[in-house]
Design brief:
heterotrimer; A mainly alpha (339); B alpha+beta (672); C alpha/beta (193); A: 339 residues; mainly alpha; 14 helices; C: 5 helices
């Protein structure tokens, strides 16, 4: 009887405190008022490793936080702000996985596991009601074959380990290797490449020892298009770079034709052809061009015929070329003026 | 010379491990050879491991840049103790540290075995031999710390050879360790602590495997490994705490925990080990939960390997990632073997050792432990799935998803409150079948205290639910325990007619393990309050200032006096001198700064912290140039509660260890 | 208990599967993930000109192929690729291609000094990026990164790392053919000074 009052008083105190707490917490803010930090914690800092932009002192993270402030001032919702800032980044930059799409299970699985665990524990209680447990076996002797099984298992595991390591060692993805440091390292299919690209590559690699072949290819392309003006500087550049005889002869012969065909300078053309033939005697292309110039410019059909026959005297000519030179030779021999 | 010595050490360690595995297995399989010849292989393993570590430290101290490891991770200007800590600051060295600690634990296991030589202990040593074989094998192949530099660069080694006898080509100096790692003394201590925790978990693992392989069910393996489990758990607690502390002092974002994959990797084994410490008690007291205990101990060990793997494979981007190396696939293979081997063995043996779970009532101590295990397991699952989910989604659908702090926090907070509730109630419930009304009576005063604390917090600190809730729940935990202690002491005093204060010591001494556990619980409660306060009530702002400027922040006046520039042997320090005043009184002068190490131009910002009981003032230098500085000012209220709480948690573990020692020496084993 | 065994073997199988997942990730780098911008309309950013008053809106350049490059004076790869950017911009100046180079976390004087040292293209627009707005809008992880926008204003390509004239020109040629060059990783990037 005597300790009933203190007990009642004690409960009264508990109830009072509980009510006080409940009343006091009505309308309390749910979380810290710092909305910007909340939003910032949902965005991974792209230049850091595993830090949010709210936490990182890096410049980009701080710029992103400034953007958060701006977007907040514009009245966007939290989700909109996160979406705006991370729009151009892969989904991995969003640190707050949504309860939908591929991350739904991330939220649901722990909840399901909690339920399953609770269910399992409650069943442990029921089990005992059904059957009284046997005492726990202490050091029950091993079945005779048990060691063998363990050894076999260990052996299998050893093999698994070796297998995995060997497999991985040979299947490691290497980081993509930049094989493009110099244009000459990788064989390049020039047919796919535009004139502009070739120009760009050439002017960026002026000193590259192997740039000359690309220069010549580009110059030849201009030459074929009849754009002598663009071709000229490239042939000239090839010549000033002390090229190999094979490259020199191509540049000299084309240049010779350009000065003749473009400017009508027969003598200059002829001297260029002669220099070309010094580099590679009997170069069929040069001989042919020289012949054309003799025929059309110098008005010397005899020399032209002589040069054309020297071309035809060579073996291994392209049949089409052979046909063309033969036609020209016939024409020049029959006294036809140059077309 | 030192390289050769180190190589010899590794080979000795490997040989010792293989030998130990063989002898241990033979002894376990043929009890007749009992006790024969386990000491020599063990000594070889320990000597080998220590030699390797000594050679590595020696090479660092002697500036022996002919070794690739030294050439790439050390520099002449690295001061003590960071030059020693460099021995475990990079990948290969950290594996050596792992080996040394493993050898140490194996030695301790052997000492226990010598006192009580039986098949279980021999088998456990064999398992530790296997683990040792793996790690020494790593050191001799993909993670060789003693590779000889054969092509020296300007300040690094470009090419190295594994053969110790090749002609070395040593660079004149090296780049030094990662700047982040030579910035604070904690970084020298944190990894060894963490490793002492990680590797310690291999002891219960080894006993468990041994018991299963030998078909010895029962609680032998639990009792034999409990000391090691507690040691490992205490170190792991300390390691995690120091990691958070280091992050707070060095990483300059005012936080201590970022749910980074590697931080998660250290948290998960701790959670599972905590669950194991509780559930193993259930098996030792009541014989139930056998399979579950195996599952826990296997998971804990596998998670330590997973953590090592995540840190070192570069699979997950993280602050802590070591550079990518060939060690990733090997660790993955080992992880797979550990998982398949242990769980496979358990599945094979399950029919032989199954005992029906015995639970008289859900409202009992074991019921509370079960609930605590469930919550801890779910929490681990949350951390694990959050860490690995992006990988899995990308592998399955190619989608990029991110999981970060918002997810972990939202999941962990309710689970943490459940744990706090269980911590208050569980220890008061009796084994077998608890009496709810009796427990209710016991808890009534604690409940009043909790409510009172919550109301007080509401009026004086903040009305935020997280703060009020954490303070209430933490008070509940601590008050329930204190009330229990005082009531017991009071009863004892009445019975013996003594003074209650004198009886407190006696009550504590009667069940030291139990009260050590209570101390750890109180530590967790403090940590919870610290987390709630520091994360909910922190203020922060950014200020662009020129010399002479002053701003007011959180009641302080921050006055930018001048910039400064200092040259130190291993770094150049740029910073700002900030005079902090409060109500016109100078409180302190802080120097937030950035350190530039070697050739590095990025700079490592180091915050300056002024700690008070109410909270820390935390200043970070975001940028400094000729015009002025950008200063970030933050407050971290109550953050010291986290450090104090963490230390208290670890202290509980240590005290329970010494308690167990006394109990073992004394007449009986006092189970908690 | 059979349930227990089933669960245990389930754990074994699940861990094996998880290991497989890891295998696919060796060497993968999250910053190399495909940019979601590709195939989408280019972000319409307004940039201040680096060396003169005034600004340029990216959408005003529509109708031409626009090459957007992010660079900084502190970035070594940017130095290495700068000459190629200049030559490519020059080569394509009359071919309906507009180059826009945007500074990333760099001060105006330092960026100007960088151009003084490594050259400019007459046809390129050099712009500064206040508070990294453009970089964020383009989802920049590190620099150099180069984006390609076709005549209709759709982002059709991205080059991560140090590009060169051939890579740039190939991408532009592909766009001119009506193809989508997509994302290409040619080297490392730098994230901060």
């Amino acid at each position: 009887m005597s300790d009933r009052w203190p007990r009642l008083l004690s409960w009264l105190l508990t109830a009072t405190l509980a009510v006080l707490l409940a009343v006091g917490m009505v309308g309390a803010p749910a979380g810290p008022a710092d909305r910007a930090t909340d939003i910032g914690e949902k965005i991974r800092c792209p230049v850091c490793q595993g830090e949010s932009i709210a936490a990182s002192p890096s410049q980009l993270a701080r710029d992103m936080m400034a953007m958060v402030d701006d977007l907040m001032a514009q009245g966007l919702s939290d989700d909109e702000i996160v979406a705006t800032i991370t729009a151009a980044y892969p989904g991995s930059e969003r640190l707050d996985p949504p309860l939908s799409g591929p991350t739904m299970w991330l939220w649901l699985l722990p909840a399901l596991a909690l339920l399953a665990g609770g269910w399992a524990i409650s069943r442990m209680r029921r089990d005992i009601a059904v059957n009284e447990p046997p005492p726990p076996p202490e050091d029950s002797p091993a079945p005779p074959n048990s060691n063998r099984r363990v050894i076999a298992g260990a052996g299998v595991l050893g093999l698994v380990f070796i297998g995995v390591v060997v497999f991985l060692a040979f299947n490691r993805q290497e980081n993509p290797d930049n094989g493009l440091s110099g244009i000459a390292d990788a064989p390049v299919d020039l047919s796919e490449i535009s004139n502009e690209t070739m120009e760009a590559v050439i002017s960026a690699n002026l000193d590259h020892p192997q740039i000359l072949s690309m220069r010549l290819a580009l110059a030849d392309r201009y030459f074929e298009e009849g754009d002598y003006q663009s071709a000229f500087p490239h042939y000239e550049a090839v010549l000033t770079a002390e090229p190999s005889p094979q490259l020199a002869v191509r540049a000299l012969s084309h240049l010779g034709w350009i000065v003749f065909d473009g400017n009508g300078e027969v003598e200059l053309a002829d001297s260029l052809f002669d220099r070309a033939l010094e580099a590679v005697p009997d170069d069929p292309f040069t001989l042919y061009l020289k012949g054309r110039v003799s025929w059309c410019g110098a008005d010397d059909p005899a020399q032209a015929a002589d040069l054309f026959s020297r071309v035809l005297g060579q073996s291994g000519l392209d049949p089409e070329v052979r046909q063309r030179v033969t036609n020209d030779l016939t024409a020049v021999q029959s006294g036809v003026t140059c077309p | 010379m030192l390289g050769l010595l180190g190589d010899l050490g590794i080979v000795a360690g490997l040989a010792g491990s293989v030998w130990l595995t063989w002898r241990g297995w033979r002894t376990a399989a043929r009890p007749l050879e009992e006790g024969a010849g386990l000491g020599s292989p063990l000594k070889l393993m320990v000597v080998g491991a220590v030699t390797a570590m000594a050679a590595l430290v020696g090479a660092l101290l002697a500036n022996d840049f002919s070794l690739e490891y030294v050439a790439n991770h050390h520099s002449r200007s690295t001061p003590f103790p960071f030059n020693v800590a460099t021995a475990w600051a990079a990948l290969e060295g950290s594996i050596v540290l792992w080996g040394v600690i493993l050898a140490g634990y194996a030695g301790a296991t052997y000492l226990a075995y010598r006192r009580n030589p039986d098949r279980l202990g021999a088998g456990a040593l064999a398992v530790m031999g296997i683990i040792g074989t793996f790690f020494f094998g790593l050191m001799i192949t993909v993670a060789d710390p003693f590779r000889v530099c054969i092509e020296a660069g300007a300040a690094s080694c470009l090419n190295a050879s594994p053969w110790p006898w090749v002609a070395a080509s040593a660079p004149a100096n090296g780049p030094g360790p990662n700047p982040l790692l030579q910035n604070h003394i904690l970084m020298a201590i944190h990894p060894p602590m963490l490793y002492l925790g990680y590797v310690g978990l291999s002891v219960p693992f080894a006993y468990a495997i041994s018991g299963l392989a030998l078909s010895q069910s029962g609680t032998g393996w639990l009792e034999r490994s409990r000391r090691s489990t507690l040691v490992a758990w205490s170190f792991l607690s300390l390691g995690i705490l120091l990691g958070g502390w280091w992050a707070y002092e060095v990483l300059s974002w005012g936080g201590y925990w970022a749910w980074d994959p590697v931080e998660n990797a250290s948290l998960m084994p701790w959670l599972i080990a905590t669950a194991f410490i509780h559930s193993s008690l259930v098996q030792m007291r009541r014989g139930s939960l056998q399979t579950w205990n195996y599952v826990l101990v296997f998971t804990a060990f596998a998670l330590t390997i997973l953590g090592t793997f995540l840190t070192r494979s570069g699979t997950i981007a993280s602050v802590h990632s070591f550079t990518q190396s060939a060690i990733g696939p090997v660790l993955l293979g080992f992880l797979l073997v550990v998982l398949l081997g242990s769980f496979g063995l358990l599945a094979l043996r399950a029919p032989q050792m199954e005992t029906s779970p015995r639970l008289e009532s859900l409202f009992s101590r074991e019921g509370a432990f079960l609930a605590n295990n469930l919550v801890l397991a779910i929490l681990t699952f949350v951390v694990l799935s959050g860490t690995l989910y992006p990988l899995v989604v990308e592998a399955i659908s190619g989608d990029q998803v991110g999981v970060g702090p918002p997810f972990f926090q939202r999941m962990a907070i309710p689970l943490a409150f459940m744990l706090l509730g269980l911590m208050a109630i569980g220890p008061l419930v009796a084994w077998g079948k608890g009496d709810p009304s009796q427990v209710g009576r016991k808890l009534h005063r604690a409940l009043q205290a909790a409510l009172a604390a919550a109301v007080l917090a509401m009026f004086t600190i903040s009305r935020l639910p997280a703060v009020v809730g954490a303070i209430g729940a933490a008070t509940f935990v601590i008050a329930a325990s204190l009330d229990n202690l005082l009531t017991s002491a009071g009863k004892a005093a009445k019975a013996r007619d003594g003074r209650a204060t004198a009886e407190v010591g006696r009550v504590l001494a009667a069940r030291p393990g139990y009260w050590a556990g209570q101390l750890s619980h109180a530590g967790v409660a403090l940590v919870a309050v610290g987390i709630a306060l520091s994360s909910s009530l922190a203020l922060h702002s950014e200020h662009r200032m020129s010399p002479g400027d002053a701003v007011s922040f959180a009641g302080y006046e921050l006055h930018y006096v001048s910039p400064f520039l200092r040259s130190e042997p291993n770094r150049r320090v740029e910073g700002a001198t900030i005079e902090v005043t409060r109500d016109g009184q100078t409180v302190t002068v802080l120097e937030p700064r950035a350190g530039f190490y070697g050739e590095d131009t990025t700079g490592i910002t180091t915050p300056a912290v002024h700690s008070t009981l109410a909270g820390d003032l935390y200043l970070t230098l975001l940028s400094i140039d000729s015009i002025g500085i950008v200063l970030r000012a933050e407050t971290s209220p109550g953050i010291w509660l986290i450090w104090l709480g963490g230390l208290t948690v670890a202290a509980g573990g240590v005290i329970s260890l010494s308690a167990r020692r006394r109990a073992r020496i004394g007449r009986e084993t006092a189970l908690v | 208990m059979r349930v227990t065994r089933v669960i245990l073997w389930g754990v074994v199988a699940a861990s094996a599967l998880l290991a497989l997942v890891f295998v696919t990730r060796f060497g993968a780098d999250p910053t190399m993930a495909d940019s979601p911008l590709i195939g989408e309309e280019a972000p319409n950013v307004t940039l201040s000109l680096l060396e003169s008053e005034g600004s340029v809106k990216l959408s005003d350049l529509q109708g031409e192929i626009v090459v957007v490059n992010f660079f900084a004076s502190w970035c070594l790869q940017c130095r290495a690729e700068h000459e190629d950017l200049v030559s490519t911009a020059n080569a394509f100046a009359d071919a309906g291609v507009q180059f826009v180079e945007i500074t990333y976390q760099d001060s105006v004087p330092e960026a100007v000094a960088f151009l003084d040292e490594f050259g400019r293209s007459e046809s390129t627009i050099y712009a500064s990026d206040r508070r990294s707005r453009a970089a964020i809008a383009f989802g920049v992880f590190g620099i150099p990164e180069t984006f390609f926008i076709n005549e209709e204003g759709i982002v059709v390509g991205k080059i991560i790392g140090e590009s060169n004239a051939l890579v740039l020109g190939n991408a532009i040629d592909a766009i001119k053919r009506g193809e989508q060059p997509g994302q290409q990783v040619v080297g490392e990037t730098e994230t901060a000074p």
